[in-house]
Amino acid sequence: MLAVVGTVPEQDFPLLEGEISLEDVNISIQGKCVSINRGTSALLAAAIKTADVLGQPAPYGYLVGDIGLGDGSCRLYEYLTRNLGQSNFKTITFHYLQPDVDWHNRVLFAIEEMERRPILIADAGFMYAAKMSGQSAMYDLFTPDVGELAFLADEEAPHPFYTRGFILHEEKRLPELIDRAYQHNNAARYLLVKGKKDYVADLHGIQATIDSPAEEAMEAIGGTGDTLTGVVSVLIQAGLEVSEAATIAAQVNRLAGYYAKPTPAAQVMAIVQHIPRALEKIIEKNR
Amino acid sequence: MAFLNILKKRKSKAFLESNRWDRGILVFENTSEVIRAESVLKSEGWKIRVMGPPPEIRSGCDLVIEFPLIEELNISRTLQLAGIPPKEMVPVNSPLLQPVNLFQAKDFGQYLMIRAANMKLTIDKETQNIVNVSGGGCPDVPYLAHQMVNKSLAEAPSPKEIGHTLCGYALQLAYEEMRRKCSL
């Protein structure tokens, strides 16, 4: 089963674990609803849509409220250190959590106690913590955008906010940034770099480039990276090899965006709705 | 086996304690400010410690305060309110690093997007309404988006007021640049 660990932007949202369902424009866990706008709820909505098409079970969620104070994230980290070791998830995706190196490492220790090592995916705040901890190589997939890739490539930077000068010129220097991230052990086994073009890369460089269809507005829409992470998580859980899953997920997310014909004012749910159609189309094309 | 477990635990503990990448340093004008700031931050529950400054820090006094770097925006606001703004806030591991101070503007015709570091803010140029917030990875990003989207640039709360993390700080820079471009 796929587990997704993240936060919702409500201060009083309790720490909950359980199967996630989709109800109209909300996701639901243990009877509590969260609106799908961006962040972990957008990732989960995309994951559920993908799982439906593939006949996979819905993802299992570990969610807590956190508006950036870090209190919810701390409770969730502590909970994971006590409970993950006894779980048997095949894939775990970590998402919007307050980056905290000590807690990150304790969670990794808990994963080491699992009977079978799961495939590990990190995005957003947890990916920042993974890089800061020097433990990036423990992960199977990171899903940075191009700016976050510049952060991974900058061995000095503790956060994208402190990434050195090359952050705004990175599109042209992408192969160099990927190489640098691997050189300093700040990349996962695979990288899925989201941007104007999407790239799948590993230690040996760029393995696939996905650049069509292209909807320029997607860059402005909050949550489009989260949906990509949701889709790739389910494809990996379904048994695809990580690089193949990343390539297909990028194609699906782009096609869903193309079908949605969004403006920069569109909200991510408009794209999530088109994921099933996009996935069916890509499956058909690959038959 | 038990011996191996003890070794593993010792290694783990040392590993956990050696990594301070997520910590920052607050630099103040004098020791009196350090003591006051320590008292304010501890009373509000922050995990901080007073220590000697690293050699790269050439200004300020002989003591600095180590703090959780991600929460820079929240701590900065707390100290401003207490009347003891720090002289500098820098990462522990690389005190000479400066925040990203370059902006990237993208014109979509009806819409304008400004990016600062990993954060992007988009408005409708005609109404000056904020239509989207994207990028970032700290948990206040979805919260900030929820609070700011569908409000006008003039009326929306600033990330500086309601954000807490470095992603919130980056969004504040994009927000200030957008206001400057819109002559607000």
Q: What structural class do helix, strand and pairing data of chain A support? A: alpha/beta
Total strands of chain B: the figure is 8
**Spatial order of the strands forming the largest sheet of chain A:** 4-3-2-5-1-6-7-8-9-10-11
Q: Determine the oligomeric state from the structure.
A: heterodimer
Number of helices of chain A: 10
CATH classification, class level of chain A: Alpha Beta
Q: What is the third-level CATH name, the topology of the largest domain in chain B?
A: Enolase-like, domain 1
Major protein interface: A-B, 65 and 58 residues
What portion of the residues of chain A fall into strands of 2 or more residues?
A: 15-25%
Sequence of secondary-structure elements of chain A = EEEEHEHEHEHEHHEEEHHHH
Low-pLDDT segments of chain B: none
What's the rounded overall pLDDT mean of chain B? 86
Q: What is the strand content of chain B?
A: 15-25%
Full CATH superfamily name of chain A = Ribokinase
Largest sheet of chain A: 11 strands, mixed
Q: Give the CATH architecture of chain A.
A: 3-Layer(aba) Sandwich
What does this structure look like?
The complex is a heterodimer of chains A (287) and B (184). By secondary structure, chain A is α/β, with parallel strands linked by helices. Chain A has one domain: UDP-N-acetylmuramoyl-L-alanine:D-glutamate ligase (3-Layer(aba) Sandwich). Chain A contains ten helices and eleven strands. An eleven-stranded mixed sheet of chain A has the order 4-3-2-5-1-6-7-8-9-10-11. In chain A, helix 2 (71-83) packs parallel to helix 3 (101-112) and helix 8 crosses helix 10 (275-286). Chain A starts with a strand and ends with a helix. The model of chain A has no long low-confidence stretch (mean pLDDT 95). Chain B is of the alpha+beta class. Chain B folds into two domains: 20-91, Alpha-Beta Plaits (2-Layer Sandwich), CATH 3.30.70; 103-181, Enolase-like, domain 1, CATH 3.30.390. Chain B starts with a helix and ends with a helix. The model of chain B has no long low-confidence stretch (mean pLDDT 86). Classes of the chains: A alpha/beta (287), B alpha+beta (184). Chains A and B meet through helix 3, helix 4 and helix 5 of A and helix 1, strand 6, strand 7, strand 8 and helix 4 of B.
